[in-house]
Amino acid sequence: MSVKNGSNTLILPSSVTSLPSITTPLTESNIKTLNPIKLFNASSSNTTTPLTSISHNPQGTYFVSTSPNGSLQLYDAIKGRHSKTIYSKKYGCSNASFTLRTATQSTPTSCLIASTIPTTQNDVANHAMRLLDLNTNSFIRYFQAHTRQVTSIISSPSPAFGLDSFYSASFDGSIRAWESRTEKCYACLGNMGSDPIISLSQSGTLMAIWTNDTRKLRIIPIESFPLGIIFEVYIPDIKGRVEKILWAVDDMLILDTPGFEKAVIDSFNGKVIGTLRGLTKFVVSGEEILRNGSSDVTPDGAWCFSGSGDGTILAWDMNKLKSIGNVNPIILRNEELIAKQVVPRILNVNPKLGSVVTADTEIVVSLYSPV
């Protein structure tokens, strides 16, 4: 299918009822139908500025992109069009995340963002996270505690822990627990190295913590956070910086190291049980910015998608990996995008509907179809 560029023309299907949802397991035949249907410039003012994050709201009806130039773009995922631009120019923006509260809203009214102030500046105000009002382009609340740049913002996926709960990690070595209705964090786990990354299980009951400088993985129950670390394991043979941790089927953990093979770990004992291979390194030009991962899993955790440096998207069957340790990926190529050097450096799977969003300096929306 030819990729359209620029306009807000509706080119997605008029109904999303036929798209796979969380209740419709994807098959290999579905995966092979993934096809780009819309391309957006990431920024109307500077198309060479790479994006730092892509995030969907809990219903999958909208997604946002963030950029270090301070622009946040909101997109209507169902209609396949740009909705609005919001700015945070003074601090930049990254790690956008919607709390579960927005699942009660037909259109999300707010999202959390971190700043992109350089990591060398130790200033609590500069590294505050912010709850941004998407209607008024104003900040509802500031969350000040981290003294260095934030590396992760993760909203709780479970209403059992509240609709406003979220967690953050920072280069200052701390992991903090928050509620978006108040400015003060209510729990803090310190001494987590100088570059921690966090992720929550799909049930929201467990947190995985990876520290890039020490190459250690920890699992901790949310119910007792910041106490009760279940285990701590040293995994030295990880190439590249882990940007994201993914929870796959049967609580397998995937360490997302963009452009490098990805270790798959048993979250019950910390053992490496397989590797996702076949990736090509991304070209790094100039100063590399912090991003929130090149991979994601489908809502049921059965498939892992990843962008690759050669412009392709790879997909691995995690159920097969669980059985045999290593599996060959399905390679999804679009020659038109590759010819235009459109790179899937960031990848985010819609949590409810049958679409995948990839981005670097452009945003591509792709759909897979029921077969």
Automatic annotation (TrEMBL):
Pfam assignment, any one: WD40
InterPro entries from the UniProt entry: Swd2/WDR82 (IPR037867), WD40/YVTN_repeat-like_dom_sf (IPR015943), WD40_repeat_dom_sf (IPR036322), WD40_rpt (IPR001680)
Keywords, sorted A to Z: Nucleus, Repeat, WD repeat
WD repeat start-end pairs: 143-188
GO-annotated cellular components: Set1C/COMPASS complex
Subcellular localization(s) per the UniProt record: Nucleus
A single BP term in Gene Ontology: RNA metabolic process
Species whose genome carries this gene: Pichia inconspicua
Molecular-function GO terms, alphabetical: chromatin binding
Family of the protein in this entry: Belongs to the WD repeat SWD2 family.
Protein name listed in UniProt: Uncharacterized protein
SUPFAM superfamilies for the chain: WD40 repeat-like
PROSITE patterns per UniProt: WD_REPEATS_2
